[in-house]
Amino acid sequence: MKTTHVEFSALFNLGDYSNEKIGFRVQLEEGDDIAQVVEHLRDKAVSLSAGEGQAREFYNRLYSNQRELRELERKIAEATDQWNQVAQFLRTQGINPQAPNLPSLPALTPGQPDEADAELVF
């Protein structure tokens, strides 16, 4: 049996449970040593992944920022719910019949209905 192609791929841990996969498929030439070809591809994958740490640093920042954004969106949703519950309580009890729900912040929470014209009454 003659080996004509070699495939090599490596999975690199970028932290925070995310990975980067780098792989190659090469055609062997007459006289190529398969072990040396695989070793060369391994070194190339490692150098691309670790290459001055820029890719790793970029991915780490990206995933960190995404986690932070999700946490902030969750906190905004909780605070909005609390505000709206208090406003509903004030309306229901007759303490402040015009108590508005919290206006949405379209720039920060896309997809929410725009209530920016609501007047806040305390």
Explain this structure.
With 122 residues, the protein is of the alpha+beta class. 46% of the residues lie in helices and 17% in strands. It is built from 2 helices and 2 strands, in the order ββαα. A two-stranded antiparallel ribbon has the order 1-2. A hairpin with a 2-residue loop joins strand 1 and strand 2. It is rod-shaped, with a radius of gyration of 28 Å. The N and C termini lie far apart (83 Å).
How many strands, which pairing sense, and closed or not: the largest β-sheet? 2 strands, antiparallel
Overall morphology: rod-shaped
Number of helices: 2
Helix-residue proportion: 40-55%
Give the ordered list of helices and strands: EEHH
Return the average pLDDT rounded to an integer: 79
Beta-strand portion reads 15-25%
- How many angstroms separate the termini? 83 Å
The neighbouring-strand order within the major sheet is: 1-2
How are the SSEs placed, and which strands pair?
Blueprint: E1 5-15, E2 18-27, H1 34-50, H2 54-92
Antiparallel strand pairs: 1-2
Q: What's a concise summary of this model?
A:
The chain is α+β, with helices and mostly antiparallel strands and 122 residues long. Helix content is 46%, strand content 17%.
